[in-house]
Every structure is written in structure tokens, then in C-alpha cells.
Design goal:
single chain, about 80 residues, about 55% helix
């Protein structure tokens, strides 16, 4: 079994790992969790990826980092729950 998940979706990563563990526990089979993500700062400290992929890395750099995006999503969903 293979589970694919986007790494910038924090809750989905947790659910994918829980699903993989439940499958492994129930069926005693191997599970692959395929994390789909990107490297924001290139391959190492000396690499400057915007030299070879300027458009892609300008898009990547414009995105908020994952912890900040997750915190914002939690605050918005909490405020929404209070209004309901």
C-alpha cells in the first residue's frame, strides 16, 4: 500500500501516517508514505536554486512557511467555530 500526501497540509500528513499505521497493524503488510514536498532553500547551503529554476523558486519563496500557514489555519478554523 502507498499513501501519498502533500507535506504543506499538516493535518493530512498526520491522517496519512495514522492510516498507514492502522493498515500495517491490521494487515501486517508494508506501507509506503510518499511525502510530496519541495526544498525551499535548495539541496545544500551552497546551492542557489534560483539560478537554474528562477520561476519555480520565486513561487516557492512567496509561499508562507508550513508552521505559519498551519497556525493561521488553526486560528481561522477556531474563530469560525466560535461564530457557529
Amino acid at each position: 500500500m502507498c499513501v501519498c500526501v502533500m507535506c504543506n497540509k499538516t493535518q493530512e500528513v498526520v491522517k496519512a501516517c495514522q492510516l498507514a499505521m492502522a493498515y500495517r497493524d491490521k494487515f501486517r503488510k508494508d506501507v509506503i508514505v510518499d511525502y510530496i514536498c519541495y526544498r525551499k532553500w535548495g539541496h545544500n547551503e551552497l546551492d542557489e536554486p534560483s539560478f537554474t529554476q528562477p520561476l519555480m523558486y520565486s513561487t516557492i519563496r512567496s509561499r508562507p512557511n508550513i508552521p505559519d500557514a498551519y497556525a493561521t489555519r488553526l486560528v481561522v478554523s477556531f474563530c469560525y467555530c466560535l461564530l457557529c
